[in-house]
């Protein structure tokens, strides 16, 4: 994944995570979402972004 592609995916992914976090009651899932949000806001590597994208589907 290129950095350009990452740039275009970050904002929508973060918005989806914020919205999902507001709706989920399971504290373990909320904690996982918080970790993903922190990672995405802290300049993630392409590998980290791909991993988060693949795991978000589990929500």
Structure description:
The termini are far apart. Helix 1 packs antiparallel against helix 2 and helix 1 runs parallel beside helix 3 (46-56). Helices cover 80% and strands 0% of the residues. With 59 residues, it is mostly helical. The chain has helices at residues 3-23, 27-41, 46-56.
What is the number of helical segments per DSSP (H or I, 4+ residues)? 3
- Characterize the overall form: elongated
Q: Portion of residues in helices?
A: over 70%
- Poorly predicted sequence stretches spanning 5 or more consecutive residues: none
Category by helix and strand content? mainly alpha
Strand content: under 5%
Largest sheet: none
Order of helices and strands: HHH
- Give the mean pLDDT: 88
Number of DSSP strands?
0
Terminal Cα span: 23 Å
Task: Show the helix and strand layout.
Blueprint: H1 3-23, H2 27-41, H3 46-56
Quick structural summary:
By secondary structure, the chain is mainly alpha-helical.
Write out key terms for the chains shown:
59 residues; mainly alpha; 3 helices; 0% strand
